[in-house]
Amino acid sequence: MKSEKKISRLERKLSKEERKLNRLKGKGASPNYLNNYRINISELNNETNRLCAIKLESVSNDFSKIAKHNYELLQIQKIIFKPYKEEMSYAGSYANILHGKLNKNGHIYCNTKATNNWLFNPLAQYFFPSEFKGQIDCLGNVRLKTSRVGAAIFDRLPSELEGSINSDGEMILKTTKTEGDFITQGKVLISKIIGSYTFKSLENSNEFFMNSQSLLEMINQYREYLKP
Q: Would you call 9 exposed, middle or buried from its count of C-beta atoms within 10 A (0-12, 13-18, 19+)?
């Protein structure tokens, strides 16, 4: 019941954002401004689908069977992630939460959703994330949180992370390389990372996304069922 209420709240928020976007289109808002709304709508939709998938895995045998096979297709012992965007931060010194999604090109993209706050602990500005733990779901949605931190005076900006995904979708990323940030003295952190090709073969990739489409059809039916 709690998950259904959360899904319903997200649906209301999603509808509100979609109405705002339509109004702004009619008023001739700038493309960049409209794009911010589109990104937010996409994230809300992904999160709604993610929560629906968790619920359906526990109550629907048909959904659970396909989802389990998708987890098996995602299983991989080694996947390399590299940052492709960094940003300045005056309150945080490292990425604490990463959210992302598996793209149809076979690569996982993650964005920083939250950082640590070192203002109340000056020593924390010397920390960096040495390990992330979390989950990739049967649709490819990724949620990771820092599970361990390392410390360094100079080289504390992750430049490479090595990950693995088990047959339950548990995902672990470990920082294997760091680099220095001498100019800004540690005020830069990773904001976006990309993973190497996720699947063992093209056949696995095609099968995963075909299964995902079937799962999304069941999720859409469930979302319609929940609507008042």
A: exposed
Task: Say whether 154 sits in a helix, a strand or coil.
Answer: coil
Burial 100-120 (b: 16+ CB within 10 A, else e): bbbeeebebbbbbbebbebee
pTM of the model as a whole: 0.89
Structural domain spans, the chain: 2-71+212-226, 76-203
What does the H/E/C string look like for 185-223?
Answer: CCCEEEEEEEECCCCCCHHHHHHHHHHHHHHHHHHHHHH
Which residues lie closer than 8 Å to 121 by C-beta, 6 or more apart?
none
Helix (H) or strand (E) holding 106: none
* pLDDT of 187: 53
pLDDT at 213: 98
Structure token pair of residue 45: 């939709």
Return the number of other C-beta atoms located less than 10 Å from residue 45's C-beta.
16
Regions of the chain where pLDDT drops below 70: 1, 90, 119, 181-188
Burial 55-80 (b: 16+ CB within 10 A, else e): bbbeeeeebeebbeebbebbbbeebe
What is the per-residue pLDDT for 190?
86
Amino acid at 83: P
The 8-class DSSP code of residue 120 comes to T
Contact 180, 155 (CB under 8 A): yes
